Amino acid sequence: MPVTVEVPTEKWAGKVIEVKLGATKEEGGSRAGTVTVGGETTLPFLTFEGGIPNQPVVAAEVWDVEPADWSPVLLEAWGNAVKDPVVWAQQAAALGAKLIALKLRSTDPDGQNASPAEAAATVKRVLAAVDLPLLVYGPGQAEKDNDVLVAVAEASAGERLALGLCEQSNYRTIVAACLGNGHVAIGRAPIDVNMQKQLNILMSDMGLPLDRILMDPTTGGLGYGIEYTYSVMERLRFGALQGDRMTQLPLINTVGEEAWRQKEAKAAEGVPEAWGDLAKRGLSWEMLTATSMLEAGSDIVVLRHPNSIGIINGVIAKLMGR
Amino acid sequence: MSRLIAAAAIRGANGVVAQASQELEAAIAAYGPDKPVAFPNTAYYLPVTLGFMGHRVERLADLRPVIKHAKELLHPVPQQRLWLPYLGETLDSGVATLLAEEAIEGIRFVRGEEPQKIQAGTDVEGADDSGLYTLNGPIDDVQLRSWGIQLVDGRMPGFAAIVGAAKSNEVAVKIVRELQQRGILVFLSGNVNGRSIIDQLLEEGVQLGYDTYTVPFGRDTISAIYALGFAMRSALTFGGMKAGQARDLLLYNKYRVFAFVLALGEVDDLKYATAAGAISYGFPTIADTLIPNILPTGVTQYEHVVSMPFDEIPGANDLERAEKLVQKCIEVRGVKVKISKVPIPVAYGSAFEGERVRREAMRIEFGGRASSCFEYLRMLDPDQVEPGKITVVGPGLDGVADGGALPLGIVVDVAGRKMQKDFEPVLERQIHHFVNGAEGVQHIGQRDITWIRISKTAVAKGFDIRHLGEIVIARMLSEFSAIVDKVQVTLYTGKAEVEKTMALAQAAYRDRNERVAGLTDESVDTYYSCTLCQSFAPNHVCIINPERVGLCGAYNWLDCKASHQINPTGPNQPVPKGMCVDPVRGEWDNVNDFVYRHSNQSVSRFTLYTMMDAPMTSCGCFECIIMLIPEANGVMVLSREDPSMSPAGMTFSTLAGLAGGGLQTPGMMGVGKYYLTSKKFIPADGGHRRIVWMSSVLKDSMREDLQTMFSSIGEPDLMDKIADETVATSVEELLAVLEERGHPALTMDPMF
Lengths: 322, 752
Fold this sequence. Notes:
The complex is a heterodimer. Chain A has helices at 72-78, 85-94, 116-129, 142-155, 172-181, 193-205, 226-242, 255-259, 263-266, 278-296, 306-319, and strands at residues 19-21, 35-37, 57-63, 99-103, 134-137, 162-166, 184-188, 213-216, 252-253, 300-303. Chain A is an alpha/beta fold. Chain A has one domain (56-319): Dihydropteroate synthase-like (TIM Barrel), CATH 3.20.20. An eight-stranded parallel β-sheet of chain A has the order 8-7-6-5-4-3-10-9. In chain A, strands 1-2 form a two-stranded antiparallel ribbon. In chain A, strand 7 (184-188), helix 6 (193-205) and strand 8 (213-216) form a beta-alpha-beta unit. Chain A starts with 18 loop residues before the first strand and ends with a helix. Chain B has a six-stranded parallel β-sheet with strand order 5-4-3-6-7-8, sandwiched between helices. A four-stranded mixed β-sheet of chain B has the order 12-9-15-14. In chain B, strands 10-13-16-11 form a four-stranded mixed β-sheet, with helices on both faces. The longest helix of chain B is centred in the N-terminal third of the chain and has 29 residues, at 3-31. The interface between A and B is medium-sized, with 25 and 21 residues.
């Protein structure tokens, strides 16, 4: 006997703000196309309930120096590409990444300490080599982040890069650089809804429109606090759908960095045999972290392993019912 | 609005617009209407015109509509007998003046007269072989971006547009140095009787240019327009506004660009007219001559025009007067100057906060058992605080043997537009953290039980008593710039002086205690929220009223009020009480609304005076748990520091799981321990007489305060009647003790 089941649906009042990354030639940049994230009027992948006009996307993490502290699994997978950010970015694009997340690690004051001008030139080279929109990260040290990102913002004015990271203790210079040169800013709060909201308020108070801000809620790797991140993202998204404007920004998660930091993704020796092959294990760790974040509402997942890019693209397509 | 200023500004505007009109027609006649007009190296055309009118000037003929608009903005000079307020007319005239001035500069570029060259002499750096020195003219876009970012992110506090000439070369140099020292950008223009501050600085060998943040625009008043063009472009670049959005652009400047005009020497009609234009941007004018003041707030954030006749400024000599003039400018515009690095010879940072200085390693100590030591922060009038001044009164370290002691009195004077007397204790308590941050310095206690030790290593590196002042000043300005504009510190080390000033401080401590004691829920109309703990208790909101300290014990009502001033978007928000729903149980409609909205819609009612009906929720940070013991018709108070079993059959850690996490559980509540000494201790449930059991650690540590409280309600013996873990860890034992001691709760009405 056929039974009609009515799927219960929720009608939300709010909508996630759409943030466009990259700018085409007509828009003052040089990208072949742009990537828009956000715009959801329902919880992740509940396409039967509300609109998801832009599906989540994969960004590939690319460094401007060969990463000394990365797992050998990753270095082997990328091969020689890690020696040149241009080649690396091109390969990532060929593998299906929709965005390149370029980390300017060479500028680390405790490392090579490359100058802001050199970093800006690297960004220009990558922009010239791939036509995807770029996310650009400084070395992660406040003062140098500011110097480097200001130089990058000016040299690439109009490209609508996403620049990060803005944190509560250091956001003004990066936001100012975005304001003056037409870029998007990434704000990170330490797994805390209120601090994320406050950071959004502070950044937008400087005059940066909300459609030029991405939220990074800080990602806990699988087994290392992923549930905290999940819960905070869930609450941010509930807030957004309920109509709280300061939570309505798209979410970005630095999945690769966190997943590959963990012992389970790195340790080959001195671990139980049941853990199995290290190469598969690390990849699984990244994929599971990424999938969890996507299900929590992530709009951009930044990944490290070349194989993850295609796999996660597939996961997104399936979850979107395509 | 001053009649004199209005009349002068309107006259000045009429004059300069007429001049621009004539020069424009002459230029068109000479060069043709299509002759290109442009400032060099900018994408903003003539920026003031672009901002105000959304109009792009690219050739001479494009200036005609500008002059036409300027003429429309002109007004007749007010008659002697007319006493209307002239603000609107004056501001219009100011804008007309700016448009005319920018047009004239555009025409001068066409004529090849800009940037201006002056005969400075071959020995002046930057002058050419014939002694000609080229002034800067308008700032180029590259420099605009670099400085614009710094103005927006706060690294650069603001800019000063100096117009005219100083009393002497010496004064000119001093003024500029004072501004440079604070990181304030300096723009120079104008002259008095043919002599400009630019001449004065060049004669004294002061380097001008982008590198020194001192930009010479031109020797006439008209070239001051470049300063306003710079401000307009900075708003267009960083404010996200479009050309022609005049009001938004001006408001952007008012709230975000901390600029002011410093008029040196006689103020003529054109200077008044230009100043009126600057006022539209929210930039006030400070003059060193006698002119009428315009003090009320309005278009500018504080005063509009302030006159400070140079020779009448109090000071030992002209240099001191110059310093005070600059200080006044900073106050009038509300420019915030920060010190990014604490200027002391030892390392500084929070890593050193927990560091201890042992007796053997100690060079000197202040306070403790060895001597008396106190710290006292007070608010003074701005005139009484000299920014950054540190005075050490009394002997220094030299005369004290290793491991010896001196008395010490630290008196911190602060002034600020938004400072309130109530914030004194909040700021004073920070001295502890500030001083502790220095490597080799240990700070314990507060008020008159302060105890400071300085290590031998720190002194060997050059640390001296005055550096305590440096630390306090630098940190106060960087942490509390929202409420503190300037700070001075006096350090007394002589016994007599310390005793004398300590008496003053102690009187102030007493006053504050009384003020806090007199601060009742009824005396205020606003409570404060605290959502600091929502990171782990998402549905919990603290409402903090004057008579109940936050449950963590760390925040009282005054702290929250100050915290809100300092960080307006932060976790402490004002909650106007609104309409009282139930005065006995302490329920207000606005409080309910606020809690509902901020608890993710999970707590809809909230009472302040009972624990039996919709009590305040808890995050998990409470110092104590109060819990109903039904058999005893009263409550127990269990301290976090008490690991023993309670009569409720649970230890603190077990109960904490039930009381925390934002749950609303009637009969159970987390509180700060000083709530026990509040007159508003569960008043609707019967107050202190309900306390039947209390951890002995609370009795011991707060005995005096509790005793005072109990006596005041007519129960001087209550302390002895209250059981603790030494006599009762079960309900049976508790009841026996209460019977034996004749506890009042046993005969009170039932609690529920």
